[in-house]
Design a protein that fits this description.
4 copies of one chain form a homotetramer. The first copy, chain A, contains 11 helices and 13 strands. Chain A is α/β, with parallel strands linked by helices. A 7-stranded mixed sheet of chain A has the order 8-9-7-10-13-12-11. The longest helix of chain A is centred in the middle third of the chain and has 16 residues. Chains in contact: A-B, A-C, A-D, B-C, B-D, C-D.
Chain lengths: 352, 352, 352, 352
């Protein structure tokens, strides 16, 4: 790639949601990036810091309506939109020479038919599905470096893949009967006004949702299959937590007879991730808490094997808005433009 | 049994914890019971309503030190103590003629060795383990009726058993590979001052705990084995929710090839529980929320079979302090003394 | 009044909001009432227990569209609607012989002009404003008994009046310079889908709102003026709490030079409320917590006089949905129909 | 002062509490500081990141027992201890040449007798009370620059002073009858295991505490008196919020007859703080929320004058651990050592 500019000119499409806000929070502190355009049809003309007062004094931008020419003039464009937006603008944007990091679901699946089945409408840019690079740096760092279009993983899939990855790569566990019992804070549902997401409805309570089928399932299947090199059988049940940020994945699998002992697995896990700046393998038997990563681009995982039986458990936590969305997107940007991969992402999690 | 008195005279040992407080909340509204003694060594002389001001105007009792004679004069004695207390007083109390409902872990397991292994000390009343009736009315109603000593199930085991019970009774699912991924509000940890249970530590976060082994596991194994009529293979992972009340169990199992279709299972489930006043089978595909049972002696469950595959999921919710502890204890009392089983337990859950 | 029927036939207009749900929760346990009609234009045909699953097994009703004839056939009709609904239906309903308990703001103010000024539209039934009895039993019990139309106080005004009442009645404090610094849980804002009430927005945070003027102010002014027998000067600032239920009022006033000492004030306060079943004067220096009244029709108050100076403080807590709305409405119903005032309202608060 | 070193060597006494953890969180990202010593008697030998896993990968330190020589070798020493610790070590530390920033209450009051009265024991280093510089940069920046010993303001006093400061400096309001009705998240109570701070006790509820007198009152009186140039009459009531971080102050005062109109006050307020990097005057009529400053060294304030009456209200929010403690301490450090005042403190608040 060509030399990175001193300050990347960054555009954001769909900046009113939580993912957009989190991109801004990271980017205002990024040494090599400057946000020059942020779009929202509904909020055109509104100062970004009026909507997100935590940014008062950090950012003077106003929302504008999306415009391909203006966006194409950016060095990089992020999509922080619901599904079905990015795929409509993408061909024109790429044609105009932009590099794009899409945080939505539009380019995560390689198979347009599966996409259509889960999203209930045709995919309008199927020809780009193969070009899109799946933006999980821990798997695809090299491909990300040269990509025009990076499709950032979903939040649940990120936590699940980083947890299962060493187990499936090593072949220690069966590829069927995987159970990903996961939970997310409500910010994963976005900033839409919906009754079930009211504090009066969602606080002080816990529930599963989509237990019979959730849109992240095909992405989980595809990505775990890629890791395993074969189709996997996986059950995924998401739950809604009465809190704002954080995803916790409890990942069950069946140990093969010839798998190594827990100590050896732990050592291998640590080795697999030792060069990764944003994956932390905690000591075996640890219980990572979602607050250990609040606001930080970090995944912390730990391994359990109850009573040395045939069930192996990985616990994996991320902040859904950080490593599960905006933080990972910026990590991808850093890779794409040759910056230090940790630039702008060094801050420790907020605790307590 | 002999005729129940007009008003049962009730004693409570260990009334300072949340379970004790919940017993009081139910009992002050019970038509056939009056609390006449409540003990606490540390709080002797303190008015109960000074510790639990929600009871101001409802109860004039003060804590006293535990005294076998005074307790034996009660018609029924509840133990709302940590483990290791009830078993020490039990022989004397029973000898004095009391009927006892123990909410602690002391008499839940039939095997004293297993008890010792998980609680790290010898059981001091092993001769009573066989006599103790396991107080899950949905399984043991008849035995409870005549029991001297009822051992109330733990909170997690209650949610798990009521969920798995129809599946295992019917033989639809494999008895190995059961996975109970559960979560509880912090009141399950009691009222002890512990740093990890501070609001500043536990709110806004989620974590697993005891993932390599938890004290409720042997009880779960024993009770599911009783239901299945054979040993079961079960993995149990509890998680801590950033909220006060509620247990949610997500119960995974593998459907046998000859199991009926989901509709038939749903119908059978509804039939199994149709006469049960405190188990509510929601429509298939529902997602019970813990707030649906907050403060109420109720278990709500729902069935899922994702993509008609071989994984069957039951979602089961209770209030850990109600159907998971004090409510179930009073349900047992009602059965033991011939009252309407719902007496004092009719109130709807508090929502929102 | 004529003899109360064995079971009152109760109608509820606007049953989909939290106030309606709370009415139902209380009424399903009321010994002398049966809900026979509940209306909602938007949810016609929906089972009430589908919207509020805590009522599954307690209530078999479905929402219907509002119909004056059907409602007029009820013994009593509650309005749990936003403002501007009750005043439109009221003339016809009263003409048809119904007795009405209005939980909305439509009939709380005696002055139609002031109402119009704060609600931004004309009052359409001003002739009923004088007839309407302000439903604070601790002030107006006798008038409530015979009322056709009871206007239940707002939630903030209830907490504020019960706190200031003994001080103003006794003439201990100046009637100017009153400051009511209050806070409410989010259920006070209702069940509408609004972004600021999302868990992701409102949890973990605290803010004032309406600090320059809030719609409850004229009601507070009118009612405190009624108590004091003169115009009062009062500043009211509400705040939003990151929780569901509860109102806390911190009520500042300036002690007159000839006021009695704190002890005497405390004694007088206790005497003022000793016959009131739903006002609890805690010991001087206490700090009532909103959880002490969660789910209960109860107000708890406490008196403070820092450093024996000239500032007197009353702390007053209620559950905004109970004593601040539905509970108080049922208390009014009990009075209107000659039941025990505590019927259906005896349950202790849910704690923890 | 002499030239600042390239990297300040920083020592922290009492690093196990939340204030210590927040100092570390800021300092690991500070360009000119390195933590070289952190002490805790109880946790000696424990890795800091074992206690605060958010710091895993950011810090390799272990807790050591406090040692004057070792601390004196640091360029600056922070005390993040309960009261009564700093004053015992201070004389020796200062004698050894250290510069000290004390976050505890030991040196905030100038009058040892008042200190003794509120803390119930004699002050052991009264000779240092006059030397100690009160570390509110917005008032004392010049004195801080050259101080040996800086006493950081308490969290409530910071929010209160920054709100009242422009009003009292300008003489717009009476200096008597000030009412500071404030609320704090539970992290202000520290990390001690106390029952009232358990999630099961403190969540979903709200209460006042110390309404008859709180230890922050004398500091508030002293500092507001310093600003006003005369004794002030102030009532301070703190409340406990069911959340972790944040202080909100609702500051009532009586406008003098000759005070300017609201617009002019707003303009003057903005001018007073326009050069301050960490005070943000929001538009008049705004309602600052505590989440607007979560994790950030920032105070946001807004002005209200209801109905143009004689009550003026300032709303003021800070993060109690940031601008209310650790952030302000580092701001002081930056001033003392000639760094940019914003070094290490630039990050935007975490929202949502």
């Amino acid at each position: 790639m060509s030399q990175a500019p001193d300050k990347l000119r960054v555009g954001i499409v769909g900046g009113t949601g939580y993912t957009g806000a989190e991109l801004l929070r990271f980017l205002v502190g990024h040494p090599h990036a400057e946000v020059v355009a942020i779009t929202s049809r509904s909020e055109e003309g509104v100062a970004v810091s009026d909507m997100y007062p935590n940014l008062r004094g950090h950012l003077e931008l106003h929302f504008t309506t999306p415009d391909v020419d203006r966006l194409a003039a950016c060095d990089v464009v992020f999509f922080a939109t619901p599904h079905n937006v990015a795929m409509r603008m993408m061909p024109a944007l790429l044609a105009a020479g932009a590099r794009v990091i899409d945080l939505s679901a539009d380019f995560r699946l390689r198979d347009a038919d599966i996409w259509s089945q889960w999203y209930g409408e045709p995919h309008v840019a199927p020809e780009l599905l193969r070009e899109a690079v799946y933006g999980l740096p821990e798997m695809n760092r090299d491909a990300i470096r040269d990509a025009r279009l990076v499709a950032c993983p979903g939040c649940y899939p990120t936590a699940i893949q980083l947890g299962y990855l060493p187990l499936l790569e090593s072949g220690w566990v069966e590829t069927s009967g995987l159970i990903a019992s996961c939970a997310s804070g409500v910010s994963g549902a976005g900033r839409q006004a919906k009754v079930p997401m009211l504090l009066a409805e969602a606080s002080g309570s816990f529930k599963a949702y989509g237990a019979s089928g959730h849109r992240h399932l095909p992405e989980i299947r595809q990505s775990l299959g890629d890791i395993a090199g074969t189709d996997v059988g996986v059950t995924f049940v998401p739950h809604l937590l009465p809190m704002v940020r954080g995803i916790h994945a409890t990942l069950y699998s069946t140990v093969k007879a010839d798998a190594p002992a827990l100590d050896a697995m732990q050592a291998a896990l640590e080795k697999r991730y030792e060069a990764e700046p944003f994956v932390d393998v905690m000591p075996a038997g640890s219980h990572p808490e979602t607050r250990f990563v609040k606001g930080a681009n970090m995944c912390r995982i730990a391994l359990h094997r109850p009573e040395d039986g045939d069930t192996l458990i990985v616990l994996s936590v991320i902040d859904n808005l950080a490593k599960g969305a905006a933080g990972q997107a910026i990590q991808n940007m850093n890779i794409m433009f040759g910056f230090s991969e940790t630039a702008g992402l060094e801050a420790a999690a907020l605790l307590p």
